[in-house]
Amino acid sequence: MIIPDDIAETAISLKDQYFDLRGLSLYSALGVGTLRDYLKSESLPHYKLRGKILVRRSEFDLWMQNFKINKKKDINNIVDDVIASLKDS
Question: What's the predicted TM-score (pTM) here?
């Protein structure tokens, strides 16, 4: 059954599902081993229910924001470094 976005958002967010590690791997394109490494380092928020590891989609998405790269900032830093090295020459 497909639930329209407007209905899902007004209900208890049905789109904010829980993933097991295989489901999260498919959702995120990260390997299960990589996800386990983040679980071991305790940086990835998760729940453990009778030995089963579950990760909430919204919490995973927020966690992923920590890895976002601001390319504009990186380019500005590179340009600043090049200009600084030219001034030193």
Answer: 0.62
